[in-house]
Design a protein that fits this description.
With 315 residues, this protein is of the alpha+beta class. It folds into two domains: 169 residues, Beta Polymerase, domain 2; 117 residues, no CATH class. The strands form two sheets. Strands 3, 4, 5, 6, 7, 8 and 9 form a seven-stranded mixed sheet that branches. Strand 5 and strand 6 form a beta hairpin. 31% of the residues are buried.
Length: 315
């Protein structure tokens, strides 16, 4: 009984160590606010690639503000993990409506009024402008981009890595339009996933978020091969109708059931994106790679070899 109590306490202490300290969270929020305030000072120019040229139109879309997204927003972010997602939110202006009409007329009613390229170039144009005034404190990665522009900002003697996602506010219950490569856009709703996680956390008496952090710590030790969002959805699916009890038993359950779900290519509805399942975006070779990592973890968990799983002797 004492040994079991000790192992649970060690797990709890390890999970607590994964959280971002309050003062660092405060610095991150201040850094992002400073970045957005600087972006707002730039005269907004929306850049439309038309026939291999760039047409610059002022105030077609205007920067309204920002919203934290991803695991940071949902409270499942862990220290030394991936970049922090920030939605840079724009609103359409009358100039955009006039441009849509012109584009629809030119393309006989089939205009793609937005492409990922438009949103990326608009935000990158603003980032380049503010970089001139704070150039030593801001590094912007060059294209190609998929969903976000990777940015590194120096603030309070810390390097803060951000994934800046340009987004159009659709004013439809939290729906946003964001890039999906330079050619496409996709509708997302970060609020739905946040609400789903809150319900999951309430049902598991606060252990849901902790379990996600624990699984992410394992993934990070193994070079972070599994996309963070897949891990979150796997945890929520595995414990959809189960309680999270002792941490060692919960981990064994997670690895066992995740292997089954991936093997069956189970449908796990994506709360943020409008896809049928979170697995739809990934090819067969990647899913097999996930399976291989899960199977290795299962073997180690069955033997209680936590050092091999997490790379630390703290458990």
């Amino acid at each position: 009984m004492t040994d079991n109590k000790n192992i649970q306490e060690r797990f709890e202490n390890f999970i607590s160590s994964l959280s971002i300290p309050r003062h660092i969270r405060s610095d991150i929020q201040k850094a992002v606010l400073k970045l957005v305030e600087n972006l707002k000072k730039v005269v907004n120019t929306t850049i439309f690639p038309i026939q291999k040229t760039r047409s610059k139109i002022r105030n077609a879309i205007v920067l309204r503000g920002h919203q934290f997204g991803g695991s940071y927003d949902r409270g499942t972010y862990i220290r030394k993990a991936s970049d922090i997602d920030i939605y840079i939110i724009y609103e359409e202006q009358p100039a955009m409506e006039r441009l849509k009409k012109a584009m629809n007329a030119k393309n006989k009613g089939s205009a793609q009024e937005y492409r990922g390229e438009i949103l990326f170039k608009t935000l990158r144009h603003q980032l380049k402008k503010i970089r001139l005034s704070i150039r030593r404190n801001l590094v912007v990665k060059n294209p190609p981009y998929r969903h976000a522009i990777k940015t590194k900002m120096r603030y309070a003697n810390k390097n803060i890595k951000l994934d800046l996602v340009p987004a159009i506010d659709l004013h439809e219950d939290g729906n946003l339009l964001i890039p999906n490569t330079i050619k496409n856009i996709v509708k997302v709703n970060p609020t739905k996933e946040e609400n789903a996680l809150k319900k999951f956390n309430n049902r598991t008496k606060g252990k849901g978020t902790k379990m996600i952090r624990l699984v992410k710590a394992w993934n990070n030790h193994w070079q972070g091969k599994i996309v963070s969002y897949i891990l979150e959805r796997l945890v929520m699916q595995v414990f959809k109708n189960r309680q999270i009890g002792n941490w060692d038993k919960a981990l064994r359950t997670f690895f066992n059931e995740s292997i089954r779900l991936i093997n069956e290519r189970a449908t796990m509805p994506d709360k943020v994106y409008s896809h049928k399942s979170i697995l739809d975006d990934y090819n067969e070779s990647y899913l097999l790679e996930i399976l291989e990592q899960l199977k290795k973890a299962k073997i180690n968990a069955d033997k209680s070899e936590w050092v091999k799983i997490f790379g630390t002797g703290r458990i």
